[in-house]
Fold these 3 entries.
Entry 1:
Amino acid sequence: MKGKRLLLTAAVLVAVMFSSCVFAVKGDVYMGYGWDASLAGFYDSNPSIPSFMDIKADQYYYSRTGKYYGYYTWQDYYFPGIEASYYFEYELKADYATVDDPYGPYDAYFYLYLSSSGPVYYSPSYSRSLDGGQSGGKVVAASGTSAISTSKIDRDNLGEPDGVLEKSQGGYTMHLEYWKIE
């Protein structure tokens, strides 16, 4: 009788142990953007990223994995005739190959700086803000228009990308391609 109780207890213990295991990426992914005073327009199709008038520089926003696109216009603050516009596509995906920590994966923070020569990835090395408090200021629209006239963007005729960025962090990978729009 004791043997049956021990066997039953062991079976229940094993069932509880295996039913509590989660085989998924546990960390969250966040996107952040930065720019200087020369950002004249911005759009990101990711529903987690606020609109041009509401987004804050150096602010991280919770995101979901998926494929997104966006565009922005950089305009020289002192010489308004000098400007550059970029179209970009990126994919955020869970990357199980980078998860080798038994306590991970951890949250992933991807930060893109929107420069005059295209988007640049920076490793987050400063304190992160998720509350929209004092980190960064609101964008002030230089022209009141969107970043690029959508009539200028023909994805099929863009050709090879001008740049490709790929970074892995905390169980996630961000793959970004961008094109300069004339």
Note: The chain has one domain: 26-181.
Entry 2:
Amino acid sequence: VRYCEGKHDKFGWNFNGSSHLEELKIILDEMVMIRRLKCNVLEQLPAKIRQVITLSPELIDSKNKTLKAFEKKLVEVGVKGTERRSTLLAYFSETGRVKIRAICEHVEQLLEQGRKFLLFAHHREVLDAVCDLLENSKTYYIRIDGSVSSEDRKSVCDQFQEEEKFRVAVLSITAANTGVTLTAAQLVVFAELFWNPGELIQAEDRAHRIGQKGSVLVHYLLAKRTADDQLWPLVQSKLNVLNQAGLSKDSEINVSNVTAQGKSQTTIMSFFSQMDDDVDDNDLANLMDELEGVPEKKKKYM
């Protein structure tokens, strides 16, 4: 209770907050925690720089009626349990959908610049749209999502690492954020966000790891008046809690571009903050398959 900002509300005890973090850090350091942080162990690793890219409003359908309907439903009194989770995921999914045009424009700009990069997204529709763009432009790329076996992952990673012609790695945030090394790229692009900053940091480190010879630039593509308004401040908040408790020394992310404002925004942000407790990986995969309602697209490697 003392360290989780425990409070009793109409639903019972709520332990989703954080409090007395400096005291908690001292206790952990003195009694139980031996932690080797990456910044201390790998002191010679080049820098990692994060940059917020606010997508062009002209390419974002922020007035999308479906998006607004999900947002309105989430702040209605009485929406909870499975209904709230499914609505939240639908809102998250629709955000990815309305960002596709702007994401593809950003990818086109990077291709024109001759960059080699990793692109992370969460929803199949976003991954497919980027792959379609790359195929139409005759760009060599690899794709790793939940359908790719561990054996195939090694093969396609080797292609990206060793063959200059492979320009882009299209990756699932949750399926490709561990177990792969892609240090041939010095640019990482997040087309979508996720409510757990640990997943994002692990994804960043597919390029920022031993073997990387240069600084790594990370682009976070954000769209105003979408779920990004709640997810981005949440990512910063959770990362700050980890830093204060001594569980991470990752640099802060500037959230000045997109912030949660007003009661409804704060309410939805709090719902996203509970997603790790409410939904496990299998539930998430099943719910997203139901929401997207499309068969698995055959993966193509050019």
Note: Residues 254-260, 294-302 have pLDDT under 50 and may be disordered.
Entry 3:
Amino acid sequence: MAGGNSNYWEDLRKQARQLENELDLKLVSFSKLCTSYSSSRDGRRGDSSSDTTPLLSNSTQDRMFETMSVEIEQLLAKLTGVNDKMAEYTSTPGVTSLNAALMHTLQRHRDILQDYTHEFHKTKSNFMAIREREDLLGSVRKDIETYKSGSGVNNRRTELFLKEHEHLRNSDRLIDDTISLKASVSILIMEKMNSRFFFFCDPRKKESLKHCHGNQGEHDLPARIVEVYTEQGQHPGQPFPCHQ
């Protein structure tokens, strides 16, 4: 140590001022980094294509944050060391006559160091809080997107199932309509054909439906119809037109 040499004191003050200037610049940049980190997350939440979105990705900002934190901590440690040397110098017996002025200067440098330390920890804590919050929100948004994607797939499957079900119902309806149409046509054809057929009726049967034999097979005719033809002069075994 240079003892009471004033040059030593001035050298310490010069080192302190230089470190304080570096810290001031670093802290300004550090604060801007934290602000841009928050803005980038807000921009991505609002619109990923927004022109206000920073060029730096969050991973790059995270690396810069870690690097700048280490640099600022190193500068604070150096400034603390310089302040300790200044305090040690003020305790030297040879400078007691100047002790009041030296202590005033030392206290000013200590206050600056305390302010920079407080600002650094405050900015760092804010950055960490923002990053933790955004990581949590990002995880929640990811879960929501995953749920929406899964719901979209399920909705698509449900829609396809309903369409297929409706298609099958339409097919069944078409088949039923076709069968009904064919049955109606068949009935019309049979009615026209039966009007030309002759049957031989056996009215001696006592059932309510008389059993008749014709060229298209056997038929059961109502007794009333058979009796009418009998009253018109037809006899058992004689042919008469079928009016079924």
Note: The two ends are 138 Å apart (CA to CA).
